[in-house]
Design goal:
The protein contains 9 helices and 7 strands. By secondary structure, it is an alpha/beta fold. The protein has one domain: Rossmann fold, CATH 3.40.50. Helix 8 packs parallel to helix 9.
Length: about 230
């Protein structure tokens, strides 16, 4: 009985995941949410990396050809943002999906001048089985339910090998032929925005874009929470 009471308390506890402030109605208090450091200033026209001395396109993107039009990342993958993504994906803090959906919508999607069709990048099946849920699909459902954003789960992903230890070329090789478009009855949207949690090398977003192009999607932009 005591164990059940304690578990109920833990599950019912409302505290800020960053400053531990109690008695709040969301995973982050207002101060921590508004203090998250958005990426600003001149950005690479392709991957969205902040530019210091380069003009328009960063050195990385000059040596690579991406199939998506451009990427936009809200934050750098460090500090509080890195901690929140970790808590969401690995500590089962699913309530952060609403926070991430809020940020994606108000910091980018609400300003998009065209009808927005969101396509989440799919997780590996082994990851979904281990975690019990798909982290980007969960965020997408929040976008659809709360902000009336059109979401289409077009992609599926095969393969069991993790990408973490691989460089760009290794990731491309690992993913080639493993991301496919599902059977889709309606006409394929002409333009979509791929969403993912972190832009690291761009390999996953690239292979997703290649699959979407092969199915008839004409334009693909990518949007991520963080840029590593």
């Amino acid at each position: 009985m005591l164990a059940q009471i304690l578990m109920h308390y833990v599950l019912s506890s409302r505290h800020c995941l960053l400053c531990n402030k109690n008695e709040i109605d969301s995973p982050l208090c207002h101060r921590c949410l508004t203090n998250l450091p958005l990426l600003k200033g001149q950005r690479c026209a392709v991957c969205g990396t902040p530019l210091l001395s380069e003009y328009n396109i960063c050195m990385r993107c000059r040596d690579r050809q991406f199939s998506f039009i451009r990427n936009h990342s809200l934050f750098a993958y460090e500090g509080a943002v890195k901690e929140l993504i970790y808590q969401y994906k690995f500590n089962n803090e699913k309530r952060l999906a609403e926070v991430f959906a809020h940020l994606l919508f108000y910091e980018y999607l609400s300003d998009n001048p065209y009808p927005t069709v969101i396509v989440p990048v799919p997780a590996r099946k082994v990851t979904i089985q281990r975690r019990g849920w798909d982290h980007m699909e969960t965020i997408s459902r929040c976008l659809k339910k709360k902000y009336n954003v059109s979401v289409v789960n077009l992609l599926e992903r095969k393969g069991k090998t993790s990408q973490k230890s691989l460089d760009y070329e290794g990731r491309i090789h690992n993913l080639r032929g493993k991301i496919h478009v599902k059977k889709y009855q309606s006409p394929m949207p002409e333009k979509v925005i791929l969403i993912d949690d972190v832009f690291t090398t761009g390999a996953t977003l690239e292979q997703c874009t290649v699959a979407l192009h092969s199915a008839g999607v004409k334009e693909v932009e990518t949007l991520t929470l963080a840029l590593d």
